[in-house]
């Protein structure tokens, strides 16, 4: 949809939203008081100042019911006080059977099956952006940033909490410093606030301010916190210096590394914060779950680097930011092999560009305007070649110094809607590829939250040496968001030159797709079910140029949870033939796959029990073809005690007779009938001495083979058909693959002070890939263990320094 058509339509939607009826609700109001002497955070609630505070009470049920008052046996009362440094929270949570309270020891941000108290603060009272603070019955802390229903637990700030218990129930004290919050500069604050209590052993959740689950989002149903005024917040400056030491041993070679660096958080004002990492070190990030990838697209991984996961909700608008691009594989990495001269060998070819530094500035004004700026710089990467005869070396740049930038403007209005402008830019020094993408996004609800209109219009510009390529993409959806019966319609478009892969991730372009769906769900328990949802859906996929059908499909899905917390669900779909324009790896060429049906089904047992399990099955059947696909995933978990928990996961997948790309010989695109199977075993175990110290074990072994039938090679025709072809396989062009990877991490984590921690990590990894696809699992594992293993031992210490503590120390 061109921009000149998007803007008038967007203005109409905004006008329609502004003049519609708002959500009817009676907001509870809490009036807090200022104190001069702060309470001790010990969970005992025995200071006299708590007697002076107003009490937030009369909690109502959120799940599984709808608005039922909390029973007197579990009465919950909350009090709030404040000073110039922080706000203070005291919660009394009664329990008539205290021995049933689940208190599982976990580390930060891991709730598991513990019962917990939750505080949500919306310091701009805009109905969407909230900060969440959680304390479990065992004393574990969790914090997150919320945007709508999306929780970002990568967000970590420093705050205090403590719990205590007696025969009447359990109690919480919390201190949330202003340095952990962002709020507008004005004489008196008015914040949205919500209290929640999860009673796990009763499978119920209660909230202070009623939430209508059938209308809008939970973030729009906060109460109102009043009374915070005449405060003089301290300077928000936090330093996180770190030091790390690592010993790496691989194939009789050993390396020793000593690093030091600094992360910094600075409150530019009460609303905006600067985050910066200088000399970053990501040596202890979790390993990527690498698989055998034979498809046309790159494998993507989750982000494990804290700087790129914390407080990034603004930068993720429009899905234009794939943070793994920063410091990723150099653009010329794969070309290094082809540039070898006679008698040369590659001595060094870095597989990633080093991150030199990165910063982000983000916040929101009093009028709801969110502003975000991100910048990162990566160093030059060079391949080193050596002449085996003369010994001379030469270098070739595979990635130039690169500058990555994001600028975001996000205006919230009506407490349920937003308009966003975003621009991403990647500039590389020298004669390398540059990229720039701009997007206009809108997410508009009617004031009654009955309907939602959302969409995006994005334009990409890629500057290649001697060539500029401009692309466009858009999407639009309309959805009913009220009541038990709901429906939606959507349209997605991209032209053939749309490309955001310098800082984003997109696999496909040149499409013109339509989708629809409808569903029915309940919001209160009925019969044996606490919740269920049934839906049907459909899609029609088209190529933009040339304008031809790619696929048409429809199906149905369901999800249900019983009163005993047993969950199950699944989906069944039927699809027409599918024209795949990407498997052939050639422009304007496609292969046609037969019509097929697909189904999946899962069950999940009650996690409150010591033993629980998840089972998921996927199956695809192709009509008039021998091709099919089957996968099963089994995940049992056992809680040995409140300290020790272990999860084992087994996955088996098998795909047979799939027509798959092999190679291209001159103008002929060669396909083959491929069988592929994989087995994955993984274990994740935790033993926690307390909420500050614990051991964690992560293990994963992934094995996969791909075997092509000897007489199954074909040539791709002009209309997507496959014709018989005599393709001779030899040792060099053999497409069969045996892939095996092993990773093991064992770590000890100790939070020795608020915001400060030490992590001792042992890492073991082995990798093997060859052509022996006929080997069984045991034989392939023997070959894997014959390969050299990489052993890595590292210690990383991070210390939290609050500027105000240093200032007070010197003043004292």
TrEMBL record:
Report the superkingdom from the record. Answer: Bacteria
Family matches, as InterPro entries: DUF5916 (IPR045670)
Locate the DUF5916 domain: which residues? 233-810
Q: Which Pfam families match?
A: DUF5916
Q: Per its record, how is this protein called by name?
A: Carbohydrate binding protein with CBM9 domain
